[in-house]
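User: Quick sanity check before I run a bigger batch. Here is a single chain. Can you write out its predicted 3D structure?
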Amino acid sequence: MEDDSLLTKKKGGCPDSTPNLNLGVSCEIGPISNRKRLQEAYRIRLEAAQFQRALPLPGHPCNGDENLYPNKIGNFSKALPHNQLGEVILAAYSSLIGALSTGDPEEFEFIPLGGSTKLVDPQAAYDVEHLHCFTDPGFFFLVKGSVSVQLLPVRVA
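Assistant: Done. Predicted structure follows.
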């Protein structure tokens, strides 16, 4: 709470001098004081955080690609080393999955990388609990869809 009685007000509601640790003397103009605005902003952020905390956690459905393709061709492998066919090196992929499973920051340091691309903040995936993520349709669906589009007859007018 702010004690406005300590301030001498001028015309227009501006006090003669308001101590400001950053700027020395400042003038507050507006419907509410800086202190009340600060308290209101805090209350809004607190209520938003409490609302988010009360939301149910969404499920994390799996599209089955991890088990369907042993070479992990339909899974995320950016920045990991790949063979000449463009398939991820399975030991590196296993290292990534192991680090993600434990969440141990040290394990992320030992994931083998390929080329000059880096894994940038892979732990950020842990911060999106309340975002609704749709299940990827899967690699087979994408391949089947692209083949069927290519096989459609072209009608010449």
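The longest strand covers residues 18-20.

User: Great, the batch can go ahead then.
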